[in-house]
Amino acid sequence: MAKPKAPAAPVPGKPPADLAKGTGKSIVWLMGGLGLFAMVAIGLGSPTLLMFMLIGFGPTFAAAAIDRDPERHQAIAVGAMSLGAMIPMVLGQLTARAGSGYSVLTDPFAWLVVYGAAGIGWAVHTSVPVLVVMVSDMRNDWKRKELQKLQESLVEEWGQEVTNKRKAA
Amino acid sequence: MASDAQTLDRQGPSGPAKPAGPARPAASAKPAAAKPGAKAAGGMITLQDRYTINPARPYPELATPQTPAFVAEDPMTPGELRAALICDVDPLPRIDVADKLKGLARPGLTQIAAFGAVDWPGADGQRLAVVINPPQGGRLVPMGAVKFAPMSPELLLEQVVRPVVTGLTEMFHRNQTHRGIRPDNLFFSDATRTRIVLGQAVTAPAGYYQPPAFETIECSTADPDGKGTGTRAEDMFSLGATLLALLMGHVPGAGLSDEDFFAQRIEKGSLDAAIDPREIPRDFIDGLRGLMADDSRERWTLEQFKSWLEGNRVTAPRSYSIARSHAGFDFNGKKYWSAPALALALTKKQAAGVKAVQSGAVLDWMKKSLPDNTATDALAAVMAEYEVAGSGASDDVLLSKASIAMDPAAPIRFAGYSTRLDGIGPMILSGQRKPGGVQAITEMLKANIPSFWLGSQPKHVNRGVGLNAHLEKLGRWVTDPSPGAGIERCLYDLNPNLPCRSPIVAGRWVSDPSQLLPAIDAVAAGGGMGRQPIDRHIAAFLAARSHADTTQLLGLMQPTNVDEHSAIGTLRLLAELQQSFKAKSLPGLGNWCADLLKPVIETFHHRKRRGKLLEVTMGVARSGNLPALLKLIDDAEFKRIDRRGFEKAKEDYAKAEADLATLEKNNAKRVSDAERKGREAAAMISSGLAVATVGIMLLMKWM
């Protein structure tokens, strides 16, 4: 008889396979959304906007490339902020008068806003997990101290014999 | 008799009066009981806050070999001398008889004024002091004298018979036997030596000092301790033998060995073996024949004797003797002509006796030479039983049963001991000080020899209701190692007056369970108690004298490892005793119990409650209220709450321990999860910010 396959050992730094499977959809969905948006933009026949968006999403592509998280949270954070900054700029380009000669590609403010937003997204992605871990550590410490205090009070009340512990069910 | 001192008092009872009364304090007159380390000889001992005993003034005239006598005084009757007889436990005094006769002042009897336990100087424990109104004229015959001047029949009747009969009448009226009637236990009650009284016979077991000649054939070969309480019939025989001795001027059978005199009594009858027709007036012969009849059924009662004294015609029994065989049996260089005489000889020389019985020579001789087949058949049955039992059967058992088969009326003879059925109790007591004594008596009881003896008796012998069952109970007790059983139980069961022999009571005279607790309390207060709370003697004493349940005390027999169960068992027993005997406060015992209970208190888990319990326990212990102490310690509800609380605490501790371990174990995963959640949160925050930014900018543009 063939031996049943042993479950794969968890890889450090990677979420379990089932977890990755469930969260991968959001990446696909986001990338799909971005692609659709680009296709609409291309379809409108504006190579300027296409260029703007390709360059504007540069930090997003970089984040997606270096992010080892299967759900690409870093790319989402940077991408969402970049997208949020680009939409008003794109709308500004689309609504500009034909004779104004405005090109978003040459607007330093637009690039400042887009890349600033990407930086904010990057900063959020870097700082929030640290904060969450800090909070988790604090809660963990409180719980441990609480348990140790309970044990000390039990020993004080009932004597050292109480430490002859049985396995908790 | 061979064992008696061959004293010849030529002056005798009719000679000049010997100086009677106590010896004066002198350099040579040391207290008989004084031992090194005794307190000052001048210290007076007080009995019952009334009688004062002077240990420095012996009263040798009233002393017996085992019982020294001392001068005593009664402040209520100044000027009148009293004497105190100081008794040890062994030989055991007849306290029940003393109790019945206490205060009885009748002609013919020595008055017992009081008795009770006293702390005797130099003794290793308490002694029983029996205070008597001492006879003033000394003994009729010197103590242990074998030959003395004969008395005339008239003087005998006047001086001896009438007062002794009066005294015996008083005793029999109170259902007591004297069991000490012999010439040297008759005293002149007055200094002028005209009136006789019976000496006391309560300071030793019944018949203890009686020479064989003054005992019935059945009792004569029993050991001094084993003669048993006996009946009035034994006293009547002793009276006859005493009168005979006083008439003849010597102890019956004087000059013969005990064994030879016994053989003659068997063959001729007690009177005919002792009597010299030339020495006895013909008028007395019938009276003596009536009193000294060897068949107890034919022996005169006191009423018959009194009737005869009044001149009435009373039928004297025929001479009683056992048929002499037509061929003798050679044993140990002598020839024996009757089964009882041979049985005695066989048990005196045990190794040769066993050999003779085992070889079948004795049985063959009985078959060929004895006219009566009863004893022969009985011995044949014993031999058959022995052969079935095989070589594993004890030689002592064989010889004992053979002896009983050959002479059923004789005492039980076993491994050198000889005792009547009602003498087994004192025999166990004396056996304790003899090498191998306890072992021999234990084997005798284990083999149910007493039951065999009882079953061998002729039908007319009163077996008593439940006697056989009681004897079998002795056999069971003696093999039972549990508390309240063993040879100790037999000892206290068969000696109702025996004080507790436990070393724990430190020699105090404790003959009643109500006295036990105060005695232990006194020892405990003095720090004399060891770790062992109750020993076999105390357990057996309580089992025999009270209805205490001693089955729970096995753990207490062990000097170490007194566990919770044993400690509470001890306290419960002691508390029950204190309650049932209404004993006063017992602070010494309470403190000792508290010490014993400390490990029990330690078993309570809750620290604060335990500390409080210890504090309260010590307080109650000091008050000496053992039932309250038991209630405090043996509180089931309190124990249950403590046990449940402790179990819950243990579970809580274990759960906390498990939770801590889980926290430690899952630490890396928790951090990883937190990071992942942080990244998710960052993505959501970024997305939210983006949507909000777009929304705000659009609003700003179009508004």
Provide the CATH topology of the largest domain in chain B: Transferase(Phosphotransferase), domain 1
Contiguous helical run count of chain B: 26
> Using only CA atoms, what is the Rg of chain A?
26 Å
Greatest contact pair? A-B, 55 and 46 residues
The CATH homologous superfamily name of the largest domain in chain B equals Transferase(Phosphotransferase) domain 1
Provide a descriptive summary of the structure in words.
The complex is a heterodimer of chains A (169) and B (703). Chain A is mostly helical. Chain A is built from five helices and no strands. The two termini of chain A are 36 Å apart. Residues 1-23 of chain A have low confidence and may be disordered. Chain B folds into five domains: 21-134, Phosphorylase Kinase, domain 1 (2-Layer Sandwich); 143-321, Transferase(Phosphotransferase) domain 1 (Transferase(Phosphotransferase), domain 1, Orthogonal Bundle), CATH 1.10.510.10; 323-407; 503-634, no CATH class; 666-703. Helices cover 47% and strands 9% of the residues of chain B. Chain B has 26 helices and 14 strands. Chain B has helices at 95-101, 153-173, 217-220, 232-248, 258-268, 270-274, 282-291, 302-309, 339-348, 350-358, 361-369, 373-389, 395-406, 424-431, 437-446, 449-455, 467-478, 486-494, 513-525, 536-545, 564-580, 587-602, 607-623, 626-633, 636-665, 667-702; strands at residues 7-9, 45-47, 51-58, 69-73, 81-87, 112-119, 126-132, 145-148, 186-188, 196-198, 329-331, 334-336, 412-414, 417-419. Chain B has a six-stranded antiparallel sheet, with helices on one face. A two-stranded parallel sheet of chain B has the order 1-8. The chains are: A mainly alpha (169), B alpha+beta (703).
